[in-house]
Design goal:
10 strands, 8-stranded parallel β-sheet, TIM Barrel, globular, 15 helices, alpha/beta, two-stranded antiparallel sheet, single chain, 9% strand
Length: 405
């Protein structure tokens, strides 16, 4: 880790456990005091951390550690290594061997076989946005980009399109789609910004309309949607895949980029992905030097809601699952932190799951680092237990047994 970041991170994380432990008692005040008018009637019920499991802290750590990590897999061997290490969320992305998807290769080396090996439900996710970000086009057919969807199709057509597409990827064993993108279009070139045609529009109202239809279509097919990249990547200074990026200060985000999140987090069963951008005026001076994915203030904002009230759309509190963007494969984080450091930092900050351990990273070492952080208290027992419970809810979504879907 770079020395400057080491000092900042240690300072922030030393106090974040105290902040998280007090969140459940202060969320009501925070949600209503921010601009004075959080809309309680339009909130998804906040999910305070439940009572700790009666087992020992070691028992909790052993059950929780693997459930707090989502791991990119490349082939059968990497998938087996992840499952055997206790990971229960596998990410299929660029560089993955798609023959492990159900119906694409040997049944003995498939998602179904991995489910049997795990002995419990696995979450299997993919980046299947459409346009330039689509991993499974050769198997299930192409999707238009978000921009093209909004320009050439009605919201109803997009809902039907995503239901049909969701049904196709569900048959492959996919349960979660890291989509839709709800970042605003900024007009920047591809070299200046990573979003471009991945955005539905520069208009928050258009983004909300089409992203909602997109998410509902996926849910109708039994796929969990993940809106991203909180708190908004659309006006970032660059591409977080390539290095550190900064977004406009929080007051400006509340007027623009945060508006879609404020209106979409109330969709039952939806999850949220947090990005890696630096966010001026959000958190302490030390926190503002950290990528959003490891900044406790970002998670507190998402959980407590109330943001974007000045724009007429005060956000409800969010009680669903929060996952990070890729911590070990994107330079905005990977250039400054080891996979173990960034994973633990994200979970301490407030993430439920960290997308980590891509490439040559040893997933068992990352799981061990999380387990150790639970045992020594850096990740609170309550947070670990909440991760177990949210993982169980995710498993119910995977099987279609969740009545909220």
């Amino acid at each position: 880790m770079r020395p400057r970041f080491a000092v900042v991170l240690s300072t922030v994380l030393a106090s974040s456990a105290l902040v998280l432990s007090s969140c459940s008692s202060s969320d009501d005040d925070a949600a209503t005091s921010r601009d004075g008018n959080a809309n309680a009637s339009n909130t998804a019920a906040a999910t305070p951390f439940p009572p700790a499991d009666p087992g020992t802290i070691e028992d909790v750590a052993n059950r929780a550690a693997g459930k707090m990590i989502a791991t990119p897999i490349t082939d059968w061997d990497s998938a087996v290594a992840a499952v055997d290490a206790g990971v229960r969320h596998l990410f299929v992305g660029t560089g993955s061997d798609f023959s492990i998807l159900n119906g694409q290769g040997s049944p003995e080396k498939s998602i179904a076989a991995l489910q049997e090996r795990a002995g419990e439900s696995l979450t299997v996710s993919v980046d299947e946005e459409g346009g330039i970000v689509q991993r499974l086009a050769d198997i299930v057919g192409e999707l238009p980009s978000a921009q093209e969807m909004a320009e050439k199709h009605s919201a109803d057509e997009v809902r039907n399109m995503m239901r049909t597409h969701g049904e196709k990827i569900k048959k492959l064993g996919i349960t979660v789609d890291f989509a839709p993108v709800v970042d605003l279009a900024s007009g920047a070139s591809a070299e200046e910004n990573a979003i471009g045609s991945r955005s539905f529009s520069a208009d928050p109202a258009v983004v909300v309309e089409y992203a909602r239809a997109y998410a509902e279509g996926l849910q109708q097919a039994g796929i969990t949607p993940v809106i991203k990249h909180f708190p908004g990547h659309g006006h970032a200074t660059g591409d977080s895949h390539k290095g550190s990026v900064t977004v406009p200060p929080l007051p400006q985000l509340e007027q623009q980029d945060l508006v879609p999140f404020a209106q979409l987090v109330s969709i039952p069963g939806v999850q949220v992905m947090v990005g890696h951008m630096l966010v001026p005026e959000l958190g302490t001076p030390e926190e503002q030097q950290l990528p959003a994915s490891i900044n406790p203030a970002v998670y507190h904002l998402l959980r407590t809601g109330g943001y974007s009230a000045a724009a007429g759309s005060p956000a409800p509190r969010f009680g669903g699952l929060i996952i990070t963007d890729d911590l070990s494969g994107m330079a905005a984080v990977a250039d400054s932190y080891s996979p173990e450091e960034s994973t633990v930092a994200a979970l301490v900050a407030g993430a439920d799951q960290a997308l980590a351990a891509s490439g040559e990273v040893n997933v068992a070492q990352v799981v061990d680092a999380v387990r150790a952080a639970i045992i020594d208290g850096r990740i609170s027992r309550e947070h670990a237990q909440a991760a177990i419970d949210r993982s169980a809810e995710q498993a119910a979504n995977n099987s279609g047994d969740n009545p909220a879907r």
